[in-house]
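mind reviewing both lines:
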Amino acid sequence: MADSPSGFESTKDRSSAVYHTTARLLESAKTLGAQPSDADAVLHLLRVMVDADTLLQFAQPDLASAEFFGLPREATEGSDAPRLTFRHVDRPGWDFRAWFADKATEVKRSAKTLCELRLAGLNADGADRARQEEHYDFSLRSLEAHARAIFDMLTDGDLRIIETDAEEASLP
């Protein structure tokens, strides 16, 4: 099985895919915090970017090509295309998509900043390099904190991410 939203059509529970993606993000963040070699850092930054994008795709899938022209997604994918529902076990009537999307967006924003700073840091020196390293550390901690929030909600069993059909997804 792939660790992307499209790789889990056979299951009604996407929580495990998100779990594995956030676990990889946390492991890569740990490695990046240990100041790996340039080659290892690039590999882990690439992994972080891919996993951050995958995580965000669960909450906010990219537009299908027809959607750019105003057609609804159902026009190209069919009305039975699964929707993801984000539910907290103690608050079943609440949709936790906004909470999840906020955390996933911050993970992706932090991942992008890490990549930009790593690229810029290769040529910096003195005070600029120190400032970039401080910003890098802050972005790394932000990535870890937001990924950890999602991971903890899943491991505690509080958050469920389930495929539903279009009618079920719109119900409270």
